[in-house]
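PROTEIN DESIGN WORKSHEET
SECTION A - STRUCTURE
LENGTH: 198
C-ALPHA CELLS:
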C-alpha cells in the first residue's frame, strides 16, 4: 500500500540513492526536509544545483573547485615540486586536515580497475605526466592499499621513474581498502612520514 504518495516516495527514493543512506534514514531525512520552513528547503535544493553547476576541476591538480586554479595550487608557500597523488578530492581533504603536508596534490579521480573496465586512460594519469614535465622533485603516491590502489601505484611508478623523479609510496599504516576520509590524521601522518621510496 502506498502510504505517502508519489512526491514523498520520490524524495525518499532520491535520498536513498546517496551513499551510506539506508531506507530508514532516507525516510527520516525526507520527513525532516518536508517539515523544514520553505526557505530552508529551498536553500538546500539551491545549494545542490549551484554546486553542481559551478563546480569544475582545478586545471592544475584536477581537484573539485569552483575556480580555475584551486586554493591549494594558488596558495603562496606550497611546494610545487612535491606532488601527492590521491584517488579523489575527499582523500585530498583528509591529507589536508593533517596540516603537515606543504606540497601540492594530483587527483586521479579513480584507480585502475580491470574488473570494472577502468584503464589508465580513464583516470587523470596523462594529465599527471604533463605536470611532471615541469620541475618536480618527488611524487608521493597515496592511492589506497587495496589491490587496485597498489596496481595503480605500480603503474604510475613504472611510468615516472625513468624520468628521474623520486617516487615514494605512503606506508601501509592505512588499512586495506580503507576509506582515507575515515582515517584519523595521526594515522595519515604516519603513513606519509613512513613512506617508502620505490
Ligand atoms: Zn589545484
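SECTION B - SEQUENCE
RESIDUE ASSIGNMENT:
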Amino acid at each position: 500500500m502506498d502510504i505517502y504518495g508519489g512526491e514523498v516516495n520520490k524524495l525518499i527514493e532520491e535520498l536513498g540513492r546517496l551513499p551510506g543512506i539506508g531506507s530508514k534514514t532516507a525516510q527520516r531525512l525526507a520527513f525532516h526536509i518536508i517539515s523544514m520552513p520553505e526557505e530552508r528547503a529551498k536553500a538546500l535544493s539551491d545549494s545542490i544545483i549551484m554546486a553542481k553547476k559551478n563546480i569544475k576541476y582545478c586545471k592544475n591538480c584536477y581537484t573539485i573547485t569552483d575556480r580555475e586554479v584551486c586554493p591549494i595550487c594558488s596558495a603562496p608557500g606550497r611546494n610545487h615540486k612535491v606532488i601527492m597523488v590521491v584517488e579523489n578530492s575527499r582523500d585530498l581533504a583528509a591529507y589536508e586536515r593533517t596540516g603537515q603536508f606543504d606540497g601540492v596534490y594530483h587527483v586521479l579521480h579513480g584507480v585502475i580497475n580491470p574488473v570494472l573496465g577502468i584503464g589508465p586512460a580513464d583516470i587523470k594519469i596523462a594529465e599527471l605526466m604533463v605536470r611532471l614535465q615541469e620541475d618536480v622533485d618527488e611524487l608521493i603516491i597515496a592511492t589506497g592499499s587495496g589491490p587496485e590502489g597498489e596496481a595503480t601505484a605500480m603503474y604510475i611508478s613504472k611510468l615516472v621513474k625513468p624520468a628521474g623523479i623520486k617516487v615514494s609510496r605512503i606506508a601501509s599504516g592505512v588499512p586495506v581498502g580503507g576509506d582515507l576520509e575515515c582515517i584519523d590524521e595521526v594515522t595519515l601522518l604516519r603513513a606519509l612520514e613512513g613512506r617508502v621510496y620505490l
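SECTION C - NOTES
The pocket of zinc ion is lined by residues 58, 60-61, 63, 69-70, 72-73 (CB under 6 Å).
The mean pLDDT is 90.
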